[in-house]
TrEMBL record:
The keyword Zinc does not apply. Transmembrane segments: none annotated. PROSITE patterns: HEXAPEP_TRANSFERASES. Belongs to the transferase hexapeptide repeat family. Residues 5-59 form the Maltose/galactoside acetyltransferase domain. This is Maltose acetyltransferase. Keywords: Acyltransferase, Repeat, Transferase. The keyword Repeat applies. The lineage of its organism: Bacteria, Pseudomonadati, Pseudomonadota, Gammaproteobacteria, Chromatiales. CDD domains: LbH_MAT_GAT. InterPro entries: Hexapep, Hexapep_transf_CS, Hexapeptide_acetyltransf, Mac_dom, Trimer_LpxA-like_sf.
Length: 184
């Protein structure tokens, strides 16, 4: 029998009030609160907190506090990923981020989604769709990456863009909804 976490990670409807999921979110909140409260001169403490919050992270990760996520454990980071201030990752489904990726301030990565049917929303179920971001992507400040999106390696997402569909590799894409402007 599948647990609520199994369902969540598979992109199936699940109950976010499940005690195990609540405990895992609480753990993440305590860790990112400690990270967000840390000082700039506490680099070793920040590195330890990031490693505990996001255990599947390559070397050279840099997160400018504040940073927020649902679980952290569903995020996989390549090497040398940089998050500017106020980034949010709702990782109810897997989030895979390649190496050398740069996030501007206030970037939001949302795997979480809710039913369109009001009765289902009232019942409290939700689901998620995985997000994948290739190597060497730059996501401009204030961009929103919606559930289920794949962004190809080497692409640039313009500031303030709302990415609702897949973006191929090696392009500049901007706008709401985000659209390819040209190849790079």
């Amino acid at each position: 029998m599948k647990t609520e976490k199994d369902k969540m990670l598979a992109g199936e409807p699940y109950d976010p009030r499940d005690p195990r999921l609540c405990a895992e979110r609480r753990r993440a909140r305590l860790l990112f609160k400690a990270l967000n409260d840390s000082r700039d001169d506490e680099e070793a403490q920040r590195a330890r907190l990031i490693a505990e919050l996001i255990p599947d992270a390559g070397p050279g990760i840099w997160i400018e506090p504040p940073f927020y996520c649902d679980y952290g454990s569903n995020i996989r980071l390549g090497a040398r990923v940089y998050f500017n201030f106020n980034c949010v990752i709702l990782d109810v489904a897997p989030v895979r981020i390649g190496s050398g990726v740069l996030f501007g301030p206030v970037v939001q990565v949302y795997t979480a989604t809710h039913p369109l049917d009001a009765a289902q929303r009232r019942a409290g179920v939700e689901s998620g769709r995985a997000i994948s971001i290739g190597d060497d992507v730059w996501v401009g400040g204030g961009a929103i990456i919606c559930p289920g999106v794949d962004i190809g390696a080497g692409s640039v997402i313009g500031a303030g863009s709302v990415v609702t569909g897949d973006i191929p590799a090696g392009v500049l894409a901007v706008g709401n909804p985000c659209r390819v402007i040209r190849e790079l």
